[in-house]
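ingest -> validate -> predict -> emit
validate: passed (alphabet ok, no gaps, 70 aa)
predict: started
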Amino acid sequence: EQIDGVEMVLLDLNLRDGPSGVVLAEELTNRGLRVVVISGNAELLSPELATRLVIIPKPYASAAVLAALG
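emit:
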């Protein structure tokens, strides 16, 4: 199920409240959304989930984010 008007989500894996970024990334990709993860903890992702994401490791350059968004 798509979320109206949302085409892509920019997400960190370490979230303070609510579901973890890993759980959220799984739910969002299952809905067909493109998910870009910015994290220094990409090892938290299963290999299967990682193949469905764009992963930008921290520290990152703004050019990497712009490229992922393009």
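The beta strands are 8-11, 34-39, 54-57.
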